[in-house]
Amino acid sequence: MVRKIERDQNRFRQIVRGKIKADLRKYISHGEMIGKTGGELVSIPLPQISIPEFRYGRNGSGGVGQGPGQIGQPIGRGGDAPPGPGQAGDSPGQHLLEVELTLDELAEILGDGLELPRIQPKGKANIVEEKDRYTGIRQTGPESLRHFKRTYKRALRRQIASREYNPEQPRVIPVREDKLYRSWNPVHFPHSSAVVFYLMDVSGSMTDDQKEIVRIEAFWIDTWLRSQYDGVSTRYIIHDAVAREVDQDTFFRTRESGGTRISSAYTLCNQIIDSEHPPADWNIYVLHFSDGDNWGEDNRQCITLLRDHLLPKVNLFGYAQVESPYGSGEFYHELEEAFEDVPNLALSEIRDRDGIYDSIKAFLGRGR
To answer: Each residue of 138-181: pLDDT tens digit?
Structure first.
């Protein structure tokens, strides 16, 4: 019975994974999953499928064909019933089934759905770290590590072989020779570290809708990168005319009213990399989100910083231009003209939430 339940549970999880994978663009574009994230689990709402059926209303409840009426008389509120607060309904609504997936499972679905190549880490990828795993069995050891199941089986076999076992009084008493203990064996793991810099324009032209798009995309990128590395550090930089490093909450909530100098963010990011994340030891990702509105004379400084300082140090530099009713969008075209076929530079334009899916694929589809 237990095995049958496990098979049914595994089959259910496979169905859920297939459903999420088939509708991956929809789940990526909407942020309801992110708000339900807790620890290492993500709760995903799945609609239930119901058989169509007729539902009958009450006679005399008003509406088309219900009682007398005059030409031009409004319908839908029960004739001439005065407006006011209504009563609680008694009819069932649509129900959603919520399933929980680990972040590792979610990353695997993301990789399969977007056909993402596995990242080949650099830096400490060739350094091997030794860890102990309790994978062995010994005949001696502390009682706290005694393997109960193996000890019981060994004692049971001994008693049956010596005809000491009585099925009517099934008592199994291990002796010293029956006891087995867990032991550790050294296991070698490749060690690699990554740091992700999120840069965002918080000038007056970036609205809350654009920041929500950034929040959703950052969640999915984080989920994928954490599945590829042993450890991922995250740094947040906001900028208008001046850049500063902030925490995650401030990153998504801050909005300024000043102008925009993108080079201030690139300069600060480069300084942090040089002082705290040497490229020889770290896999570095820099992702910049902006509406493309930059002070005209600053574009040349940005291109110089990218070409001479940032691009030689990073696995990937991604620029995502989030369309805004107030931004000019010129910075995207400046980068497009200045850099052609650069393997660790990815550009994307996000016109609305539906563009998040393609933007993630543009950033992570290079396998860097």
So the answer is: 888 888 888 888 898 988 888 888 888 888 888 888 888 899 88
Q: Which of 286, 215, 206 lies closest to 240 in space, CA to CA?
A: 206
CATH of the domain at 268: 3.40.50.410
Domain match, 238 and 105 both = no
| 198, β-bridge pairs | 236, 287
367: which 2 tokens?
Answer: 């396998």
Instruction: Pick the closest to residue 310 from 234, 199, 226 (CA basis).
Output: 199
Give the integer Cα–Cα distance in Å for 286 and 311.
9
287 and 157 belong to one structural domain: no
CB half-sphere exposure, 337, CA atoms < 13 A: 7
DSSP category for residue 310: I
Can you say whether residue 163 is alpha, beta or left, with left for phi > 0 and alpha for psi between -120 and 50 degrees?
left
Give the pTM: 0.62
Q: Pairing relation of β-strands 41-47 and 37-38?
A: antiparallel
**pLDDT tens digits along 261-282:** 999 999 999 999 999 999 888 8
Q: In what order do the strands lie in the sheet with 316-322?
A: 243-246, 231-239, 193-201, 283-290, 316-322, 345-350
Do 183 and 199 share a domain, yes or no? no
Looking at the structure, tell me whether residues 183 and 201 fall in a common domain.
no
Residue 58 lies in a domain: no
Looking at the structure, do residues 210 and 348 belong to the same domain, yes or no?
yes
119, amino acid identity? I
CB 195 within 8 A of CB 234: yes
**DSSP character string of 258-300:** S---HHHHHHHHHHHHHHH--TTT-EEEEEEEE-S---TTHHH
Domain of residue 277: give its range: 192-364
